[in-house]
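Q: Hi! First time doing this. I have a protein sequence and I read that you can turn it into a structure. Is that right? Here it is:
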Amino acid sequence: MTAGLPLSSSIPSPARAPRRRGLWAVPLGLSLLFVLGVVIWAQRNAHEEREELRRSLISDALSVEAQLRTRLDLEQALLRTLAAQLATAPRSAASLQASPYVSAGFRRLWIGLTWLDARNRIVAHLDNPDMPRDPHLGSEEDAAQPGLSAHLVAPVSTRTDATDGEVAHPHDVNSEKLVARYLPAGLLKRGTPWWITHKYNVRLVDVSEHVLATLEQPDTRWPRRDRTAQQDFTYRVLVGPGLPGTYLELALREPPSSWANNVPLVLVGGFLVLIVWATWLLRQQVRQVLQAESAWRTEAAWRGAMEDSALVGLRARDAQGRLIYVNRTFCEMVGRPADELVGRLPPMPYWPSDALDEAEQRSQRNLAGLAPREGYEAHWVHADGRRVDVMVFESPLVDASGRHIGWMGSMIDITQRKQLEERERHQAEAMAHQARLTTLGEVASALAHQLNQPLTVIASYNSGVLRMLERAGFDNDTVLNALRRQGEQVAEAGRIVQRIRGFLTRRAPQRERCDLPATLHRAVKLLQRDWRHQPVRIDWALPDTLPDVLADPVLIEQVTLNLVRNAIDAGLGAQRQPVQLRIQARAEASLRHVCVCVEDNGPGLQARTIEELTAPFYSTKAEGMGMGLAICRSVIEAHRGKLDAGASSELGGACFRFTLPIWNEP
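A: Yes, that's right. Below is the predicted 3D structure, encoded as structure tokens:
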């Protein structure tokens, strides 16, 4: 499409079309990247959550182990206090039962208390009255817990070989001992906070993986697929001296949520299905757009090729008259590129400078919708200055919605047609002029023939009278000189008639060596009687070294006489006082010609050209025949010279110039 059409500027180039074919997959790719980012974020978040649960598990296990150790230390201290009290008491069951420490121990943890002598014989034994008879069962809640009971040992006397906090079976000692028996399940239950048991499964196990006590709920087990992952959320810690070889184990009751639970697969899957479907629809739409765009580009290329190959100039203007489109033919018609024209507002650069107002009015008329449907002629100016005649046809320009947005113009160059019409007109006029010239030649030939006899008779009578007066002895020099001058003028008239007759009958001029200054003076002298009473002044500028020319003196006299008479008549008609003429000549050695200039101070040529002035029967005088300058031009061109005219006279009027070839020695 030609530059300047707004619609064509939006058409993408074929080079960019392949890059746009894959744009439909961009949303799908971005969606997949988004889903992948969400999955990675969920996995990282789940991993951080698992690590946090692991750290919390270890911290809670150490906290519970510390609480159990503290409770065992308190029970051991209480048992030692009781042993110190019994050291001075009677060795009987009543002494044990009477101690308030015993009832306090039974309320807290103990299930039985035994007093042994130095030989490990029972001195006294008390069972917790709130516990079952079977010492291995404990309370009803603890009876369901597996494992054996544990013991706390404290010496009754100060002498002992045993270690504080001895668990299970007491060692052989030489002093009496107090042995307090308790259930590990009870210790675990009373020493573990409720929020720990709500979050974890708490157990006491030995080195052989035997469960001594547990707070595990059987209905809170990990799924089978997560049994291996459960080990990552189980932690063991050695309880300490109170329970030698026993580990406290905490296991997370509920598995941590998977990253898939943070990002529901249903939503992700639905999102992917929707985005795939939307991408498919987008791809179909893009394919349709690309097909339409390809067809549009092809049609635009065809239309551009047709518009550029058309011989009709096209232009589009908006409602304000701004050019928005021009084709190549229009650009060639005005000689300006499209970049210079598109976007221009009136006045346009191709409007004639001497008719801007008229062109502006015509443009406003056309923009108002008043342009004639049959078209109108306009005159434009090409960039090189030549005139261009066009025929303009205007039509409304509408957009896709049917809204009127401007005007589309079609221009036909009719310059050649105008030139042909003008040439035909000139040819017709020339033929008419030629017919009149032929008639004039015939009339002049007949006139010359008719005048030749009277002139011959006048010359004979003049010669006869002159001889008779001379024979009679008449000595009046004035009369005799007048008769002699009369004879000379009659002979000159005969010569002129013969030369003009020969020229009009297409005979070649009788060119000879001619003294140009003498010929010019002779021609001017013939006219002096006509303006002897008029204020006419003639200045001569003829150099002495002016070379002779090859010309017919009689015809050159007639040319000079015609130019001088026209200059005087123009000055007198314009009432110039005085009428001033200048006749000058100069040799142009490089061209082998002599140039003669006749200048005046008259009104000038008034923009008329030499072609108009030398046209046959064209005259600026009321009584003129319009043949003088036409004959002068024919005479000069017959001498291989040139007649020209211009308004460059130093006197302020016109300047006529003609050239004659220089005479060469044979």
